[in-house]
Design a protein that fits this description.
With 169 residues, the chain is of the alpha+beta class. The protein has one domain. The protein is built from four helices and five strands. The chain has a five-stranded antiparallel beta sheet with strand order 2-3-1-4-5. The two termini are 19 Å apart.
Length: 169
């Protein structure tokens, strides 16, 4: 993986952690909705982003951060490492599902391109190494089941908190 991109990602996650009011034992995590090829940004997906913007207008950004990238949006969250039961805000899960649904709806309304999406969980470990896991691949014609997205996402995040409790391995 490109070392320059990794450094940019490390800095983005560091800024997010520094500007938040979360506990010191929390881990900043990126939930990326990335297109497998091509672009997923406003220029090529205006209908999808219109739906995303409409949905996000009613959200409180205290619980998460949101970044737009050419390859797709990224939701930044904090995970409490000490918490035995993973508590990811319901609004974050719903936002991820709505982004995926908006992409499918946008394509039906004429957005391009239509390559599949990957739901990815990323973080920097204690050794400043990138850890990335593809949680789910979703085609634009696939049925989007909130429960499946939520289960896959929670399982990946549980692995992160377990790893952090063991020392960031």
């Amino acid at each position: 993986m490109d070392p320059e991109w990794q450094e940019t990602f490390r800095q983005r996650m560091g800024r997010f952690k520094a500007q938040s009011m979360f506990e010191r034992d929390s881990v900043p995590v990126s939930i990326k909705i990335r297109v497998t090829s091509g672009c997923f940004h406003r220029e090529h997906s205006p209908r999808a982003y219109s739906l995303i913007d409409h949905y996000m207008a009613g959200l409180c950004f205290d619980e998460f951060g949101f970044e737009e990238h050419e390859s797709g949006p990224e939701v930044l969250v904090h995970l409490a490492v000490a918490t035995a039961a993973l508590s990811l805000a319901k609004s974050v899960i719903e936002l991820v599902v709505e982004i995926i649904r908006a992409r499918s709806a946008g394509i039906k309304q004429g957005d391009h391109p239509s390559e599949p999406l990957e739901l990815i969980v990323r973080r920097m470990d204690d050794k400043k190494q990138l850890r990335e896991e593809i949680v789910l691949s979703i085609g634009h014609t696939d049925r989007i089941v909130k429960k499946k997205v939520e289960e896959q996402l929670r399982e990946a995040l549980r692995r992160i908190t377990d790893s952090e409790r063991r020392g960031g391995i």
